[in-house]
Amino acid sequence: MNQRTARKAARRSVGSVRRISAPWAEPDAKALVEFRSVTKSYGDVTAVDGLSLSIYPGEFFALLGPSGCGKTTLMRMLAGFEEPTGGTILLDGVEITGTPPHRRPTNMMFQSYALFPHMSVWDNIAFGLKQEGMARAAIASRVEEMLALVRLEGLARRRPDQLSGGQRQRVALARSLAKRPKVLLLDEPLGALDRKLREATQFELMDLQADLGLTFLMVTHDQDEAMIMADRIAVMDHGRIVQVAPAEEVYEQPANRYVAEFVGDVTIAEGVVTSVRGHLVHIHAPHFGAIEIDEEEGRANVGAPALVALRPEKIQIGHDEPAQPLNKVRGEIWDIAYLGDFTMMQVKVGGDDGPLVKAAIANRTRRMERPFAWDDMVWLWWDVEAGVLIDP
Ligand code: ATP
């Protein structure tokens, strides 16, 4: 079993991503795409700001960030639709800055799909191949191969307006893949699909990428989508990359407050380091009392200000005071949001001017009566592994 097939099998069997290889951590690995100090300005606006990034062959890479952070601009520069104001872009070690889009081994699938409305599915997929001057027989066999790949064999003669949203998405994908690009660029590829179809398509896309061994670069502002699909995520803010890491690391070890708050729900306790013993760090945080965390040695210094990020699913909630001496706080329930699979509580700690702490409880049973109500006084507590120190 090769690595990709193994990875795919792992995804299928456990339903989550288990990475077999991590080329970005290998010193000798050669990048497929390299952005070197790339800047793009439009007048006064700096859309991409001195950004450097390497993407490796076979990666499913996601650019994640809020609207306007520069993700689309970065991808359009790789595709050749925009030229950088400064810096260089390399593909397979060769500088591609200045090469027009159709001469680059990249292909971009747009959010709108941009299918030709008057052409059949078959002709839409064949379009780029005809433009390239490929022989008729070769085009026919490639189109058939693509139709089979995206499971649209029966619909080749239909026009785009005779298809569902999900089918149109697959035609766009088949058309983008037909030219066998080295890198497929996906701009919010699932934006037009409803939630169920979106989820199904996420897995299809991941399988397809693994089967073909291609490199995918996806732009999204949807953190769940990035976490589910990508091998690595680059979180962007104002034209810069704040953190590049696999999803688990971005979630569990966010680089700073911006990443912690953008990816998932979080409570951030602000305090001062009061003691460091090996990897055990004590922080005094107003409203929270004494917090103890397990941190990498050398990350905290006594007397320094500290931010501790606490994810809601790591915080427990109950009416009785827990036995543990630290990592607990009493508060009042301000809000309860029932979300089906879990309930998100917001608890006001430390009096009226204190912060709201988010705690999630999994709804494991179908019991209809709720154990907690608005205005209840409760205890929140967490383990020493729950909190993580983050940069401001
Ligand atoms: P979204 O998710 O909304 O697409 P984005 O992160 O992809 O956002 P970009 O489209 O890359 O963001 O835009 C980054 C910044 O550059 C924004 O401030 C945008 O207004 C600006 N910008 C993008 N294209 C142009 C342009 N052609 N002319 C002037 N400004 C531009």
Describe this entry's structure for a reader.
There is one protein chain. The longest helix is centred in the middle third of the chain and has 18 residues. The chain folds into two domains: 240 residues, Rossmann fold (3-Layer(aba) Sandwich); 126 residues, RNA polymerase II/Efflux pump adaptor protein, barrel-sandwich hybrid domain (OB fold (Dihydrolipoamide Acetyltransferase, E2P), Beta Barrel), CATH 2.40.50. It is globular, with a radius of gyration of 25 Å. 25% of the residues lie in helices and 32% in strands. It is built from nine helices and 20 strands. It is of the alpha+beta class. The chain starts with a helix and ends with a strand. The chain has a six-stranded mixed beta sheet with strand order 6-7-8-3-9-10, sandwiched between helices. A five-stranded antiparallel beta sheet has the order 13-12-11-14-20. The site of adenosine-5'-triphosphate (ATP) has 12 residues, from strand 2 and helix 2.
Descriptors:
9 helices; 20 strands; disordered N terminus; Rossmann fold; 392 residues; 25% helix; 5-stranded antiparallel beta sheet; binds adenosine-5'-triphosphate; 2 domains; alpha+beta; OB fold (Dihydrolipoamide Acetyltransferase, E2P); 6-stranded mixed beta sheet
